[in-house]
Amino acid sequence: MVHNHNSKMPGKTIISSDWYADEQLIITQISGDIDKQDVIHWEQTLHAALDRVGDSGLFKIFINLHGFNAVNVDVHKHFRNIVPLTLACYGWKVGYVAMFPDEAEKIVITRNRNIQCVAAAHCHQDATKMEKYELLFSSNNEHFFTDVAVANAWIRGFNKPS
Q: Where is 148: in which H helix or E strand?
């Protein structure tokens, strides 16, 4: 049995995406044993939060995947492109797409409603993966974390250089 480091009940899923206008921050979370319907629902919440960002606005995003467990490979395949392809519509290229050069070169960076993503924090319980991503793909405005509180503090404290 896998024990998550958060206080949720076994088998409980958390799916949410919220827009904090005063901080220009989106916090999106998907955790638990996740099936394809959960992924579809989560993607809908993410788009709904993005829809709340004003035209020509800026936003930061905290992608909290801590406790995420795809129930099978198909779910993982469906899930894994959502963040890179969605953020590409807001002027953002996720650092880890560099691992997949064939896929990365197909990603077109656009600016939906002239909105720009300015920073991203990614959090996941897989320390090996997150340490690798942080080492290879992080930048001054994109970091990879295993600790939800540390990720949250970093993204909330991030201010775009003017």
A: helix 148-157
The type of residue at 60 is K
**Is residue 4 pLDDT above 50, yes or no?**
no
The predicted-structure confidence for 83-138, as pLDDT tens digits, reads as follows 999 999 999 999 999 999 998 999 999 999 999 999 999 999 999 999 999 999 99
Q: Which two tokens stand for residue 28?
A: 């999106």
φ, ψ at 76 (rounded to 5°)? -60, -45
Name the CA dihedral angle for 13, 20, 130, 98, rounded to a multiple of 10 degrees: 110
Domains in the chain (CATH in brackets) are 14-157 (3.40.50.10600)
Q: Which residues of 103-136 are buried (b: 16+ CB within 10 A; e: fewer)?
A: eeeebeeeeeeebebbbbbbbbbeeeebeebbee
Amino acid type, 98:
A
Residue with the two structure tokens 């600016």 = 111
pLDDT at 2: 39
β strands within the chain, DSSP E: 14-20, 25-34, 58-64, 68-70, 116-123, 142-145
- pLDDT for residue 58: 98
